[in-house]
Amino acid sequence: QVQLEESGGGLAQAGGSLRLSCTVSGLTFSNYFMGWFRQAPGKEREFVARISRNGGFTNYADSLKGRFTISRDNAKNTVYLQMNSLKPEDTAVYYCAADRFLTNDYSLSHEYDYWGQGTQVTVSS
Asked: 30 and 10 in contact (C-beta within 8 Å)?
């Protein structure tokens, strides 16, 4: 059974930082591209970042470049999202997702095979 479990969400002040983790089990982690998405209330789920299987390549939503960093530790079956300079508009449920195959459409949620349950991030002004 494949499981993706996010952690690290919570309440942060504007300008602060949080680091999200997503621990994966039930699949060969190093064979999967990993992504982070988020969904704010009343909005569609949006792409945040993606990382290649060995961590050598990353992609980000243009609006988040420079503030968010995705990384992974294949020995720990874990992908991370470091979020700095947080803004109230970053408030959302953050999801990690696993994608078995290389695709140019990595920002589209339907490309991903497995999803976590999400972790709430709330940024106060």
From this structure: no
Phi, psi of 5, rounded to the nearest 5 degrees? -125, 110
Q: What is the dihedral of CA 116, 44, 81, 119, to 10 degrees?
A: -50
Cα–Cα distance, 11 to 24 (Å, whole number): 24
Distance of CA 38 to the CA centre of its chain: 8
Provide the CA 30 distance to its chain's centre, in angstroms: 16
- Radius of gyration of the chain, Cα coordinates, nearest whole angstrom: 13
Task: Answer whether 119's CB lies under 8 Å from 8's CB.
Answer: yes
Q: List, for residues 57-105, the tens digit of each pLDDT value.
A: 999 999 998 999 999 999 999 999 999 999 999 999 999 999 999 888 9
Upper half-sphere CA count for residue 92 (Cβ side, 13 Å) = 21
